[in-house]
Amino acid sequence: MMNLPWPGAVVAGIGTIVAGIGVLYTVSKIGKLRKKQQLRKKWDSIGKDVVLLHQFQRGKYCVNLSPFAIKVETYLRLAKIKYEVDSNSPFGPKKKCPWITLNGEDVGDSEMVIQKLSQHFDVNLDSHLDEVTQAQLEAVRVMADEFVFWIVIAWRYWLDGCVTFLKSQSFPPFLNRAFPYMMTSTIKKRSINQGVGVHSPEEIYQMAKKSCGTLSTILGDSPYFGGDQPSTADCAIFGQLAQLMWNAPGSQYEALVRELYPSLGNYCNRMKDTIFPDWNKLLNPPLE
């Protein structure tokens, strides 16, 4: 007959296990808290009025895979605001990328970030524009940020299954394998909920084509959407078009800005050369 442990021994054993789990959980929480405190100390040590831009790592051909990260970095450069980049903590207080830390304060969402920067540093990139033009460009900015963005990520992460996009990044091998599984189903669901995802792949492409045609018409013969000099809206529009120009290599989406509407490709190169003269050095790996 099998000898069974006394109930008291069983209870004691369970208690020991539970206590051990509690200790491990506490140690883990303390470790995370210490790491967060160390990061905070590092972030706050960069100096007064120096912006710390938290974003994704650089790509092979484009300075970022996030159009909103390019948007904020472009703004920082146009406004001549001193900044440093952190790519180790890309997701901020609103679980979005990019975000910034400024004088100990964390600010998330690209529009909120630009609003904060504009107020704190008393910068107005649109002073050369009249009110009507500013309002019109804001409508174009919304179109780029809220419509073109969804078209591009629906194609990039879902319809294309990350195949083309991964060619533009320098991820480690394990992430190249895991990325499609991480992103495809999530972006499919989000795109459908947003509305773009209910359409067929061809319909989505036609939406992208029409949007690029609209942007090309609005740009016209001007060097920038803000006229003879870049405006706040240019930061956002460039961020979105850069994804087609450099993060969709060899695809029909890339062809929209390079071949079908070359004025948009020329615009991207103009923004790159004017605002990011160090573009090639920033890439991962850098280009000589």
Automatic annotation (TrEMBL):
Q: Which UniProt keywords apply?
A: Membrane, Transmembrane, Transmembrane helix
**Source taxon at top rank:** Eukaryota
In terms of CDD domains, this protein maps to:
GST_C_Metaxin
The entry sums up its family as follows:
Belongs to the FAX family.
User: What stretches pass through the bilayer?
Assistant: 6-27
Upper classification of the organism: Eukaryota, Metazoa, Ecdysozoa, Arthropoda, Crustacea
According to the entry, every stretch annotated as the Thioredoxin-like fold domain falls at 67-157
Which PANTHER family does UniProt cross-reference here? FAILED AXON CONNECTIONS-RELATED (PTHR12289:SF41), METAXIN RELATED (PTHR12289)
Gene3D superfamilies xrefs: 1.20.1050.10
This protein's GO cellular component annotations are: cytoplasm
Q: Which InterPro entries match?
A: FAX/IsoI-like, Glutathione-S-Trfase_C_sf, Glutathione_S-Trfase, Metaxin_GST, Mito_Protein_Transport_Metaxin, Thioredoxin-like_fold, Thioredoxin-like_sf
Domain called Metaxin glutathione S-transferase: residue spans: 208-271
Please tell me whether the keyword Transmembrane is annotated for this protein: yes
Q: Identify this protein by name.
A: Failed axon connections
